[in-house]
Design a protein that fits this description.
Length: 273
C-alpha cells in the first residue's frame, strides 16, 4: 500500500509542480515526513533523507517538464542559465545549512515570506515594475496569439534572487519556484507561462547540483526514489499540458492560492517541530 501511495504522491506532486513551476518538492517532503509517522515501512525517513530523495526525484520532474515546455517554445534558455549561475551555488550552500541551521525557525520565517508573496500577487497589477537600467537584459516573447510582450532584468539582481532560491532548494528539498516564479513575474515582467517554464529548467539544473551533494552525504533512499519516479516523469508531462490550456490569469491565481497553502504548511511544520 505504501508503494502505491508513493507512486501516486510522485504523480500529484509533479503535476502541480509542473503547472506552477514549483518542482513538486514542496509536496513530496512534507508528505514523506507525515508518512514516516504512520507507516512502519517508511519509519526510517529523516528530514535529510526526505530532502535528498525529493531533490533526486525533482531532476526527473524538471527534465520531463522542461522537455515538454521546450516543445511549446516557452522556455527562455538564456535567462534560465543566468538564474542558474545563482541557484547552483545557492543549492550547495543550502545543503551545507541543512546540517546545522535551526530549521524550525527558518521554516516559520520562510513560510511567512511565501504568504507575503502570495498577497503581493493579489495586487500585482498595481505594483510598479522594477526600474531597469539601460544595461539590463531585455527580452521579447511572442504569445500564441501573436502578441509581443517585453520583459527584462538586471543580471546581478536576478542572480542574487536565484541564489536565495537555490539555497531554499538545497535546504528544504523544494524546487524554489515558489519564490522564483513570483519574482520573475513581479520584478522582471515575465509572462506567467514563460516564467513557469523557465523556472522548471532552472529547477532541473539546481536539483542536479543539490542531489549530487546529498548523494555524497548518503541522504537518498533509492527504493523510495524508484517508487516516486514513474509518477514524477509522467506528472511533469501532464502538468505542462494542463498549463498550456490555462490562461495567464488562471496560472497566477492558482499559484497564489497554492502559495498560501505552502506557507501555512511550512509555518505549522516549524512551530510543531
Amino acid at each position: 500500500m505504501e508503494w502505491i501511495l508513493l507512486v501516486f504522491l510522485g504523480l500529484v506532486a509533479s503535476i502541480l509542480g509542473s503547472i506552477m513551476g514549483l518542482g513538486g518538492g514542496i509536496i513530496v517532503v512534507p508528505a514523506l515526513m507525515i508518512l514516516s509517522a504512520y507507516s512502519p515501512l517508511l519509519s526510517d525517513i529523516t528530514p535529510q533523507v526526505a530532502v535528498g530523495t525529493s531533490l533526486l526525484v525533482m531532476i526527473f520532474t524538471g527534465l520531463s517538464s522542461t522537455l515538454a515546455y521546450l516543445k511549446q517554445k516557452k522556455v527562455d534558455i538564456q535567462s534560465a542559465l543566468i538564474f542558474f549561475a545563482g541557484s547552483g551555488p545557492g543549492a550547495l550552500f543550502g545543503v551545507w545549512l541543512n546540517k546545522d541551521i535551526n530549521t524550525d525557525f527558518f521554516l516559520v520565517i520562510f513560510g511567512g515570506f511565501i504568504i507575503l508573496v502570495s498577497f503581493i500577487l493579489m495586487v500585482r497589477k498595481h505594483i510598479k515594475p522594477l526600474k531597469r537600467k539601460p544595461s539590463g537584459i531585455k527580452r521579447k516573447y511572442i504569445t500564441e496569439a501573436g502578441e509581443t510582450e517585453e520583459y527584462g532584468f538586471q543580471p546581478v539582481i536576478a542572480v542574487s534572487i536565484a541564489f536565495i532560491v537555490g539555497m531554499c532548494s538545497g535546504l528544504f528539498g523544494i524546487g524554489g519556484g515558489s519564490l522564483m516564479v513570483p519574482a520573475m513575474i513581479l520584478l522582471f515582467g515575465f509572462p506567467p507561462h514563460l516564467a513557469v517554464a523557465t523556472s522548471m529548467l532552472m529547477i532541473f539544473l539546481s536539483a542536479i547540483v543539490s542531489s549530487i551533494t546529498h548523494l555524497s552525504l548518503g541522504n537518498v533512499n533509492w527504493l523510495y526514489t524508484l517508487a516516486l519516479l514513474p509518477g514524477a516523469w509522467f506528472g511533469g508531462q501532464l502538468g505542462a499540458a494542463v498549463n498550456r490550456r490555462m490562461s495567464s490569469d488562471a496560472v497566477v491565481h492558482l499559484l497564489r492560492v497554492f502559495l498560501i497553502i505552502i506557507g501555512v504548511r511550512l509555518i505549522y511544520q516549524g512551530l510543531t517541530g
